[in-house]
Design goal:
- The complex is a heterodimer.
- Helices cover 72% and strands 0% of the residues of chain A.
- Chain A is mainly alpha-helical.
- Chain A has one domain (50-195).
- Chain A is built from ten helices and no strands.
- Chain B is mostly helical.
- Chain B has one domain: Up-down Bundle (Growth Hormone, Chain: A), CATH 1.20.1250.20.
- In chain B, helix 4 runs antiparallel to helix 5 (106-135) and helix 11 (209-236) packs antiparallel against helix 15.
- Chain B has a two-stranded antiparallel ribbon.
- In chain B, 78% of the residues lie in helices and 1% in strands.
- Classes of the chains: A mainly alpha, B mainly alpha.
Chain lengths: 197, 466
Amino acid sequence: MRRIALPVIAVLLVAAVLGVQIAAGGTHYVPLRPADPCTPRPVPPTATQLEPLAEQIVLLGLDNAACRLGISRERLVLALAESRSLTPATTAALKAGLRDAVQRLDREHSLPKVSQLLPQVLDQAQLPGIAKTIVGAIPAGIIDSALPTGALLLRTIDDLDINRLSHELSDPSKLQSAVQSAILRAAASQILGRLRP
Amino acid sequence: MNGDRSSQPVGATTVGTGVVAALSVVVAVVLGDAGVVTLALPEILRDFGATVWGVAGVLISFNLVLALAAVPAARLCERRDPVAAQATGLIVFAAATTLCAFAQSLGVLIAARALQAAGGAVVIVGSLEFLVGARGERVGARRWAWAGVAGAALGPVAGGLLTSLFSWRAIFVVQIPLVLAALPAVAALRGRVVRVASSLHTAPDRPYIRANIALALLSAALTAALFLLVLLLVDGWGRSPALVAVAVTAVPAAALASGPILRAARAGTRSEAVAGAVLIAGGLAGLALLPGAHLVWTLAPQVLIGLGLGFALDSLTEAALRQRTPRALHGGWTIAARHAGVVIGLAILTPIFTADLRHAETPAKEAIARLVLDAPLPGSTKLELAEHLGRSLAAERDRVPNLRPAFAAVRVPSTQASAAAALERGLEDQLTRAATRAFRTAFLVAAGLALLALVPALALRDRSGS
């Protein structure tokens, strides 16, 4: 009896300790796993500033692109940060993902009016002062009917050089400038398109 | 095989308590030396800019030489003047320890550790004969075994405290006077050691293979408990060596508490060894299944390991020595088995956990990327932060990175400070989770080694049967 008692007590002690640890989550103490990029995330409230809006579109766009590529959003971001040289498939997935993001925000009425974004864009744009004054004087209603936000952003995305942007990731100011230039180009192109007979 | 020579000590002495105490201390110091550097390893790693494998070499060189030298050292003590051999061993150990204390490169440190082990091997097996001669076979052998258990259990604690208070070099400096203090005690034995001539002319008993294999497997598993646990707590969780030293006192405290339990239980060698192996395996499995990065979670598994250490090592060593002569030779076999086990443990577990640490990079980076992407911070701040975090992660391959410099390098407006601080805490938590996960397989493999020790342990003869 004495001979068996000590090993039995040892087994019971071990079972008690392991039981407590497993019950407290010992098997689940692991790093956060990436979320499924194909499960749509909730859309945050409408952003009326350019940077938060761009961030919303990029985050939703990354999800869409990752879903198309069959990888996690986080793995795609790490690949972008590490290689900085995109394959045609990745570039296409990113463009398509960003387009899907804009279309979703548009469908859910989560895009701001262009007139709300315009002051910030003009403020930071490298345009002659007179041009800024003229554009600033145009009534908001005319701007918003001439430049629907969704269409403007889709044109901007089509115009974006994703490969070049991936090289600017380390310099936020260059990235911002490149995005603003693309928006202005898209706006000009859209206005010109409207003016043509 | 055991015949009636077992009742005749090879060296019979009449010595005082002071000599017995001095010999017990040197046994504890030498056997504690296998683990005393464990808590200093992270600092040695940083000091010499070494890799995990490099610092594992500091442990491996000592244990490998001790394993290889223990049996030849026992033969030396048996065939030559044991007092002279013991004195030489003490001097070599002290000289090599001095070299360790002042080593300017990892190569010198590893070589000095090997020399330390060569001297230490003679000291340990020589002390066994003197202790048995002084206190009789049962008490002397048990005292020798307990000095070894105490040294192995207290070594990491002492090493951690000394490293924190002074530097890793201090752990070697303090050993020098402790070892040299035994020299007068050994010199006092000259002329008082009586050799029993018959023992020199009869074939030695065969080593007790089962007990020695169990000792080797449990020592391999215990390596994980000390080496991996300390690396996890200091490097993985970022705790200070002093705090870790205090935290890992749970192992020696439980090992010491096992003595009265054993005496009360009187369960027999096999039961003690089996219970010890189960407790060590269970404790290691507990370390593999930590539910959080709080030191409290490591205490219960450590207590299991400490109890198992006290139960198994003591009874297995005693079983390996019982009624076998020459004792120094069988003491040498137990030392060889234990330290070969440590080397095997390190050789098996180090590549497992370094590979797991490397594999942990991807999930850790993905978790970090997720938190950064979803952080309530402006995109420009996130991009800047991501750039610095990427550099921190790239600079610390095979180690858990320190993210503080990345956050310090980014100027965050005061309105975003709390969000940035929350993100930093979140990222640290993810790294801790990834590091803890990276050690899981190694702890489970170590638990498997302890369970494997059940095979020879179950086949042991009990005290009455031997």
